[in-house]
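Lab notebook, bench 4. Still working through the backlog of constructs that have no structural model yet. Next entry is a single chain of 101 residues. Request: give me the structure tokens for it.
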Amino acid sequence: MSNTTECERLHQVARFSQKIGEFIDWLRREKEVKFAQYHQHSDECFDANGDLACGSRNDELFPFRFSTNSLLAEFFGIDLEKVERERRELLEQIRKQQPSS
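Model written out:
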């Protein structure tokens, strides 16, 4: 069998992660909570001449758009790309073990 350590890590946190995700979705849907973050100027905010180009003010609130799954994976230290690679490798091994018709 292939190495599926990331899939195993994902499985270990799945129940807890699922509950957190449901809570976030409940906040958005039932309580109409909007997530936001403060803008902080970075190098990308300035053009080649050094002029401010982002059109925002420092500490201005902006909607924080995120994928719940990606955020939870980051929180739990799960690499979703690695999980997908492991799943594909596992499926390929299963296919190779099946008798051909």
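Notes after review: Helices lie at 5-29, 68-76, 80-97. The chain is about 50% helix and 5% strand. Flag for follow-up if needed.
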